[in-house]
Structure formats: C-alpha cells, structure tokens
Hints:
The complex is a heterodimer. By secondary structure, chain A is an alpha/beta fold. Chain A is built from eight helices and eleven strands. In chain A, a hairpin with a 2-residue loop joins strand 1 and strand 2. In chain B, helix 5 runs antiparallel to helix 6 (117-130) and helix 7 crosses helix 8 (149-174). Chain B is elongated.
Amino acid sequence: MSGKFVSIEGIAKRYSSAGGTTTIFENLWLSMARGEFACVIGHSGCGKTTVLNILAGLDEPSEGAVIVDGQAISGTSLDRAVIFQSHALLPWRTVLGNVSYAVSSKWRSWDRAKVRAHAQSFIDLVGLTGSEHKRPSELSGGMKQRVGIARALSITPKMMLMDEPFSALDALTRGTLQDEVRRICLETGQTAFMITHDVDEAIYLADKIFPMTNGPGAVLAEIVENPLPRDRGRTDLHRHPLYYALRNHIVDFLVTRSKTFAAGTPDHDPRNVPIVHIGKPGLAIASDAKPEAPRETSCPGQARA
Amino acid sequence: MTSSLRVRAGLVSVALLIAFLGIWHLATRSTAPVATMSPEYAKLMGLTATQGKSAMPGPLDVGAKLWEHLKRPFYDNGPNDKGLGIQLAYSIARVGTGYLLAVLVAIPLGFLIGMSPLLSKALDPFIQVLKPISPLAWMPLALYTIKDSSISAIFVIFICSIWPMLLNTVFGVASVRKEWINVARTLEVGTVRRAFTVILPAAAPTILTGMRISIGIAWLVIVAAEMLVGGTGIGYFVWNEWNNLSITNVIIAILLIGIVGMLLDQILARFTRLVTFPE
C-alpha cells in the first residue's frame, strides 16, 4: 500500500437539459493504493457507472480530474482494462480471436504466433482451455464473462475496472467467478476498481468499500475498511466475528442512510470522508466461531433488496 | 421430420405447377368456330379470327419456343434479332456496372454519414427528397446530359441502387452497439482500424441487406429502362416482341427475368449468410 496510485480529485458530472442542469454527483474525492481492491456500492442512478466510465476514459467529468500513477488521465488507455457488465465480446470473433484482438492492440508489432501464444496463456488462466475456437454465442454467460476477464488481463493493465461484471450471472457461476477474480488479483497484485450493488460481493472481494448516496447529487458517504483478513475464503467468510457487523453496516447504509445522508450530515466534507473501521482489524477467522447475533441473518436489507 | 416436410412441400409445388400448366393449356385451346371470310380479310385479321385460335399461346407453344431459344442462346442476326443469352448478358452487364458503381459510392459514403452525426443530419433532407424519386424520372435528364442511351441506362441503375444501400449502411454503422465501440476505445484502437475491425463486421449484415434490396430494385428497373432506351437487353426484347405481337416470346422473357432476378437475390443472400453472426 504505497501512497495514492489512483486519485479521483473533485470530479462532477452534470447534464444540461431544457429544464436546467442535473447534477448526478459532484465534488467526489476518492483514492486507492496500488494493489488495492476497491468496490463502489450504491443504488442505481447514483452515478457509479459514470465514475467508472470516467476512470476508464470513456466519459469525461464536467469538473475535476483523475490521476492514475502520477499522471492526469485523458481518454482511454491500455493501462486501464475494463470488464463490461454485458461482457461486450465481439460476436463475430472466436474466444481466441477476442483475446487476440486485445493482445494485438497492445503489442502491434507482434507476429501472429506470438499474439496467439500470449492470448492462449490468458485463456488457460481463466479456465477456458479447449473452448478457444468457439464463438461467444456458443458459450454460457459465465464462460463469456471469463473471456471478458481474459481479454482485460491479457493486456497486463495497471488496473482493472469492473462494471457490475457478475450481475447478469446466476448465483453459482457468480460465486465461482468471484473466486477466480480474487485469486487472479491477489496473484498478480492487480489494482481493481469494481462497481457493484451486491453487498456480499463487496465484502468478499474488496479491501475498501465506497458507499455512495442516492443520486441526483450523489456523494461518497464514507470509506469502509474491510476488517476481514486478506486470505479469507468464500465458505468461512460468514464465520468471521466482524462479518455481520460489516454486512449490517453496509445494508443499513443502502436501506436508510443512502436516502437520508445529505439531510442528516450537513457538515459532510467530501474531501475528507470518514473512514469506518468495523471492530478491531486483524482477527483470524475461527472456524468454530458462531455468528455473534442470529437476528442479523434476517436483516432488513434482504427483505427490501 | 424436416426432410419429410421438404419432400411434401416439393410435391405440393409440383402439383401446383401441373395444375397451373393444365389450366393454362385448357384455357388457350382453339374453341371458337372457324369463320369463313375472304382470304384478303383473313390475312388482315390473323389466326385469331380465321382459325378460332387464341393469340395467347399455350404452354406447349411456349415450351417449344423456349427450347428453340435454349438451343441457340447466342445467335446474332442483326440489331433486331439476337439470341436471348445475348440480351440477358447486356441487361446483366448494365445492372452489374450500375450496381457496382453504386456500391463503391454508397458504402464509403454511408460509413462517413453513419460515423458523423453532423453529416447525418446535414445530408438527411437531401436523401429524403432524392430517395422516393422513380429512377425512370431521371432518364430524360440522363439522356440530355450523358447523350448516350446505354450509359443513361447504367446511370438509372446506379441511382436506383444507391438509396437502399446508403440508408442501410448509415443505419448499420450508426447503430453498432456502443459496448463494442467502447471495447475498441479502451484498447486504444485507432479510427481506421476500428472502422475495419469493429464497425464493418458489426454493420455488415445490415449493409448486405441493403445490397440485397438494391439488386432486386436494379433488376426491376433495368427492364423498364431498356424498354425506353432500346437497342439491346431483355427489356428491349420484351418491347420488341410485343411490337412483333409474339406473346410467346414475351412470356419466355418474363420467365427468364424472374429466374435471373431470383439468382441475383440468392447470390446476395449467400453473401449475407457469410457475414451474419449469431448473438
């Protein structure tokens, strides 16, 4: 964790229309260290996809700037790979063709054999060996998103941007892919920025969780440090003594505080948002530990979500 | 199951054809009584009046005449008597030339218009006005400016083929999925490479559909155009045979126009299938 690798500095997004300007969000400050996994969580319409698009260079902020690795970004870059919600594979290309397209875009002087070998190694990494010559239409949703991940990783980016990458998948496939993404990010020390509205996904994957209030006029409410150990596993995640406290804190935010935040905290300083530490960090997961409060399994978030 | 459906559909087709030919044959039999009249008058009136024979040929007459044509498709006995193969070749060459020129103009232009919202809006009123003009309405203007009937016919084909291709290319290019463009953008793919590796393959099915509509229209228009400009071609042949009162030849020409039109359409359909991708 060395300094600020990514720094979003006071960005805003406004749209002008006949009735005046609509501010989706403004004065948004956010930073990430190298190798960190960050999740932005919030309801639809809070502008989280816009934040990601600005970070990717696909969209431009109305105000403010984004600095990545010491340089203000302008436009898209091969340093920042995007995994799209709808996988966005080119349907007329095969799996290998889709990954090779990215590889040959990054290294234009490479010959075919080298591009293929490089693309193949990333197809192997996401576990699609044997499906190289299939077209996207022949793949299941999960396999398509694996190709999307392989394509993003194949250009060895400085950071990965993920826009609700698993929201269109069934629960089982989503879990497997979350495991894969977590494994790959830990192995490669990848900096990752993910948009989600799935609380459990954020808790499992993120080092830091950024809850955003409802738009229009959305703000970053706070920074929640994930207290769970880095070597957490999907199966014993919920046994960690701080799991439910963390989960409840985020669910409470999404259910109530995301609506009332602006009115309830008039002295909110977007440049220095409070950092929330749930309990004491660094506790190991005790495999025999019981969930500390059973009532929390039926928290209001699930009923309303 | 599908093959049996195919066989059954084939059988029904054959049955319908036989029924059609049968009715045609019965309808054109000689039935009226033979009138008696002076030989000079009979000569003036023709076979219809003298032998009670209909001027409408039966299927057997058409078949015999068709066989005659098929045996010698490429004979050339001067300006008014050429084999059907030669006439069709003239028509296909004119359609091919005009259509190809239209492809060369419509697809690059459509690409530009589709990629530029400004051009798209600026050119839209012109396209909307020019599109519904019957291609034959251009004929006098073409004849006056080009001063060559054969090139005028090609121009008419060009002007009628260009609109469906242009509009489909514009639509195809403008409606390429945003996410595919975004993929190219995040990969820092340049404009030219993006046009060829993302937009062209994505828009190809729509463009080919436009090309398929165009070839159909071009083949419809060439017959009318050749009736006007004369000289050669299947359209001229139809008009010439009408002036010769040879309904048999007219029917044969109609049949061949249909078959060639179908073949042209099938060729484009095959190309369309090649570039279509399942999603």
